[in-house]
């Protein structure tokens, strides 16, 4: 129960913290500075990697399960979480 409360706390505070951080940094952010371009590139690469990993993981799970397990919807749902 304690772990769930901690997870709920972090999920609930992440967005407001990100908004406040963005507002605070908007005054010092320069669009064309080399540092900003590198940071944006790295963040874009990380998010693309996570999307590829999640997409391919969900697509390939069914291929690696045997034919016996492919018909069991409960097992498939359990594997996705």
Automatic annotation (TrEMBL):
Record GO terms (molecular function) = zinc ion transmembrane transporter activity
Q: What's the protein name?
A: Fe(2+) transport protein 1
Query: What is the species listed in this Swiss-Prot or TrEMBL entry?
Result: Acorus gramineus (Dwarf sweet flag)
Transmembrane intervals = 7-29, 35-61
Tell me which UniProt keywords the record has, alphabetically.
Membrane, Transmembrane, Transmembrane helix
**UniProt-listed InterPro entries:** ZIP (IPR003689)
This protein's membrane topology, according to the annotation, is: Multi-pass membrane protein
What Pfam families does the record point to? Zip
